[in-house]
Amino acid sequence: MVKRRIAEILRSGQPDESILIQGWVRTKRELKGFAFIEVNDGSSLASLQVVMNQNLPDYEAIIKKLNTGASLEVTGVLVPSQGKGQRIELKAEMVEVYGEADPETYPLQKKRHSYEFLRTIGHLRSRTNSFGAVFRVRNACAAAIHQFFQERGFLWVHTPIITASDCEGAGELFNVTGLNLKDIPRTENNAVDYAQDFFGRPTYLTVSGQLEAEVMAMAFSNVYTFGPTFRAENSNTSRHLAEFWMVEPEMAFCDLDGDMDLAEAFLKHVFKYVLETCPEDMEFFNQRIDDTVLATADNIINNEFQRLTYTEAISLLEKADVKFEYPVSWGLDLQSEHERYLAEQLFKKPVIVSDYPAKIKAFYMRLSDDEKTVRAMDILAPKIGEIIGGSQREERLDVLEKRIIAQGMQPEDLWWYLDLRRYGTVPHAGFGLGFERLVQFMTGMANIRDVIPFPRTPQSADF
Amino acid sequence: MVKRRIAEILRSGQPDESILIQGWVRTKRELKGFAFIEVNDGSSLASLQVVMNQNLPDYEAIIKKLNTGASLEVTGVLVPSQGKGQRIELKAEMVEVYGEADPETYPLQKKRHSYEFLRTIGHLRSRTNSFGAVFRVRNACAAAIHQFFQERGFLWVHTPIITASDCEGAGELFNVTGLNLKDIPRTENNAVDYAQDFFGRPTYLTVSGQLEAEVMAMAFSNVYTFGPTFRAENSNTSRHLAEFWMVEPEMAFCDLDGDMDLAEAFLKHVFKYVLETCPEDMEFFNQRIDDTVLATADNIINNEFQRLTYTEAISLLEKADVKFEYPVSWGLDLQSEHERYLAEQLFKKPVIVSDYPAKIKAFYMRLSDDEKTVRAMDILAPKIGEIIGGSQREERLDVLEKRIIAQGMQPEDLWWYLDLRRYGTVPHAGFGLGFERLVQFMTGMANIRDVIPFPRTPQSADF
Predict the structure, then answer these.
(1) Nearest residue on chain B to A426, judged by CA atoms?
(2) Which of residues 303-322 of B touch A (CB under 8 A)?
(3) Which of A27, A198, A331, A460 has a C-alpha 20 to 30 A away from that of A257?
């Protein structure tokens, strides 16, 4: 007997096929002389309806065990379904129960649970419809990302998680140490004696793989990272995680226009892929979570993103008939309210804002001839805000050194990064995508903690 | 003018095509009236030969700048090559130099450098033939892994990097903390006051995503992790990294035989994929690094792995006409010398040893009816030793609780892991693959530090 996944049976199973399935009970309905069992194996949102006739051996004993959450194996024959809601169902010939789930204690009963409650049972919540759909879509997003870059000849590069570099986000770094926190060794001057630590110096969890990705782009032309990054920011909001996944492509011989083109093609590709591979899950989100997600996906796939400069954006915001909490003027960073106005109200689609003031952006972004702006761009998505941030990188050694010093850093600390400009420097550009923000955007899930299997947030590192 | 990647030109470029390429100079050869420039863009081991005629505008000035490592853009026409070693070459019509590389200071001159030296310039070493080939093959291995699992309906799940669980590798864990190491807060009893730390408790870098992968397998049936893992083990060897990538599939409704079948199919798939996508790089490794890598790949793809139990392995080792440093007897863990004897000398191919003594294996492995062995398996590869370790997991609540207690741990600490056995437990199995070991195995590179872009080892966290 060939084992089959339920997604595939629901899609293409034919009457009279003999099959074997394995999964978990979602619901049980007992009628006179027979019972309907909805069995789910995680391959799809929909479950397969199994019909058990009372003539089956041990019918009573088995039915008693088949409560929500119990695991089982069923062999039987596919038959056309008489009932509503399914094309086909499985007439059981043999049912084996692997593990029961006591209805008195199993937390996932048929009723609807709040996401807050489900976060406290993170080890079980993937068994619900919502989280099943979220993590299937999350996987599809990830697969789409790899497909997009691999097809275009980009190498996936693994940049380091533990880093000695603290130049990008000082104050928001997690320390990594092999030292015993109960007994930190001291130098003669009473400083921490890092010489005794595992790496012989202070080390942190990375906040970005970009600088190392640039190293790799200077050898392979086109590369991308896709890995975990960290912020020790004490933000207890629905938008922040201490540990999240980032995607960071980096392209040699590429300017900001090429960067924006790639980012737009990238988002379109991912949405298309997910709609094609997870149509049922996306339909579910549209019905149950946010009735705009399908329209949003359509909008992204079929429209050009609106491109405008920061200076143009400021001008539009100044003209806007809206009272902003943070007043707008050239030189200030855009706040969430401004980003939302542009993407949601004014253009009603993703917006790419470019050429930000140099003062509010990172040292590595390429200074324009006006010496006031840098070749940076942010993609602002309706409801999510900034989903992608990118820039052309400063490839000129002298300009980069000046910018490093101006931001209070030591060029010596970045000797290897500067070497990239000393030896065979080229125009290059890249962007960063917060992967969980993308999954939120895709699914309409309101809280970022509900799109990653095991969220890490202040005071919370369960499971 | 359409920009082309050099790999693609070398594969399928045709005479008379007008093209544009961008890359870096590998070598320059000046002859009377013209020059040959080998240009590499990282897309392939081989470079494209560019022919520059002295009639080109600024010929002398440009040639002077085109030293090894300089970056450039060339437009021109493809012509059949008169020289040996290439089918086609590019007759330059315009050459633009982006960035020079001073031959007096640029560390990568034409001569061969030791891997030790190249590790000190990790930001440049990817520009060499060896590391170019290594990281293209590394990417191909990674792409093959995703392809293998995605095609089989496995979900890629992101298990947490920061974990509060210390039950798997106590003593070899990196601490993660938001506390200031210079000023660790204390409780009244002078213990570390973790209540003030970011997560409100001690946290570490993960050593494995397996337990969380089991959570996900209990909802989606088949999942895999592919992410970084960590060991704070002070091992300064060619086989150890403090930070490395692991692949950990986990399958519900699967026993140890299914686990071994999957692991074998998996390795065959990855080798096949890499041979197909990186034939030139693999040829390079076979010629320059280890003249057995192609034979090994062939062996893996075309032979069934040898399967035997630990008990059988011990018996074969006892009969072996070899003086082992560690004498063999039932109950002892296999040492590297034993593993190598089995894989390299006795069977001359990968060997799967299964059913190890319970005492030397982890608590979560399924106890067999003999109550002496567990359903564990290791795949031992010639020259590499253990490349995959897997097991069927203990799915019986009572047995698992006893094993946890027997190993000196607290069942309460693993309440969520035990819940998986309380509610809908199923037979399940999985394995772990050290990704860098796989890349070593594939390429023949002797030191594990040379198959990851930025190695993390004791006293070393550069770049």
Answers:
(1) B98
(2) none
(3) A331
CB of B326 less than 8 A from some CB of A? no
Give the C-alpha separation, B329 to B317, whole Å.
Answer: 9
**A5–B212 C-beta distance less than 8 A:** no
- Report phi then psi at A75, rounded to 5: -110, 145
Taking the CA of residue A352 and the nearest CA in chain B, the distance in Å comes to 25
Q: Name which of A182, A396, A438, A454 to mutate to probe chain B: the one with the most chain B Cβ atoms within 10 A of its Cβ.
A: A454
- Does the beta carbon of B296 lie under 8 angstroms from any beta carbon of chain A? no
Asked if the Cβ–Cβ distance from A416 to B123 is below 8 Å, we say yes
Q: A73, A85, A93, A90: which is closest to A15 by C-alpha?
A: A90
Separation in Å, CA B353 to CA B324, B341, B367: 19, 13, 16
Instruction: Give the nearest chain A residue to B121 (CA atoms).
Output: A416
Q: With an 8 Å Cβ cutoff, is B428 touching chain A?
A: no
Q: Provide the whole-model pTM.
A: 0.97
- Name residue A357's beta-bridge partners: A373
pLDDT of residue A173: 94
The pLDDT of residue A385 is: 82
CB contact under 8 A, A453 and B216: yes
Helix or strand run (H / E) with residue A432: strand A428-434
pLDDT band at B381 (very low <50, low <70, confident <90, very high): confident
Residues 126-145 of A with CB under 8 A from B: 126-127, 131-132, 135-136, 138-139, 142-143
Would you give the DSSP letter of residue A165? Answer: -
> For residue B243, what is the enclosing H or E element?
strand B243-252
Residue A197 φ/ψ, nearest 5 degrees:
-80, 165
pLDDT tens per residue, chain A (463 residues)? 789 999 999 999 999 999 999 999 999 999 999 999 999 999 999 999 999 999 999 999 999 999 999 999 999 999 999 888 889 999 999 999 999 999 999 999 877 899 999 999 999 999 999 999 999 999 999 999 999 999 999 999 999 999 998 766 546 899 999 999 999 999 999 999 999 999 999 999 999 999 999 999 999 999 999 999 999 999 999 999 999 999 999 999 999 999 999 999 999 999 999 999 999 999 999 999 999 999 999 989 999 999 999 999 999 999 999 999 999 999 999 999 999 999 999 999 999 999 999 999 999 999 999 999 999 999 998 877 889 999 999 999 999 999 999 988 999 999 999 999 999 999 999 999 999 999 999 999 999 999 999 999 999 999 9
Count of CB pairs separated by less than 8 Å, A with B: 321
Task: Specify whether the backbone of B354 is left (phi greater than 0), alpha (psi in -120 to 50) or beta.
Answer: beta
Contacts with B106 (C-beta within 8 Å, 6 or more apart), sequence order = A422, A423, B67, B68, B69
Give the residue on A whose Cα is nearest the Cα of B108. Answer: A423
* Min Cα separation B306/chain A (Å): 26
CB contact A9 to B (< 8 Å): no
**Which residues have CB under 8 Å from A57's CB, separation 6+?**
A94
Please determine, for the modelled complex, whether the ipTM score is greater than 0.90. Answer: yes
Interchain contact B69–A (C-beta under 8 A): yes
> Is the minimum CB–CB distance between B157 and chain A shorter than 8 Å?
yes
Spell out which residues of chain B touch residue A427, defining contact as CB-CB under 8 Å.
98
pLDDT, residue B171, reads: 60
In angstroms, the CA B432 to CA B390 distance is 6
The residues in A 30-59 lying below 8 A from B, measured between CB atoms, are 41-43
Q: Compute the distance between CA of residue B374 and CA of residue B164 in angstroms, rounded to an integer.
A: 27
Backbone angles phi and psi of B442, in degrees to 5? -65, -40
Query: Which chain B residue shows the shortest CA-CA distance from A70?
Result: B424
What is the pLDDT at residue A165? 84
